[in-house]
Specification:
By secondary structure, the protein is mostly beta strands. Strands 4-3-6-7 form a 4-stranded antiparallel β-sheet, with no helix packed on it. A hairpin with a 4-residue loop joins strand 6 and strand 7.
């Protein structure tokens, strides 16, 4: 689970077992990626809009995606 959604600056990940993330805009263009630190992803530099957050567990090679809104 991610929260808050919509967000203004940070996304928190509940029950996190993921190592890294990628963010894509509403039409599927890559925006950014990085390593997850302290179960938080900073999105304050993103323009307002709808995004897809892809979380990756590198060891298990598993992913999960969430939609979120940057206010």
């Amino acid at each position: 689970k991610i929260y808050p959604n919509p967000t203004t600056s940070k996304i928190f990940i509940q029950n996190n077992n993921f190592d890294s993330y990628s963010i894509f805009d509403a039409v599927g263009r890559f925006v950014t990626n990085g390593k997850i630190k302290n179960d938080v992803i900073n999105v304050d530099t993103l323009p307002s809009g709808k995004y897809v957050l892809l979380l990756l567990n590198e060891k298990l090679k598993s992913t999960i995606s969430y939609q979120f809104i940057k206010a």
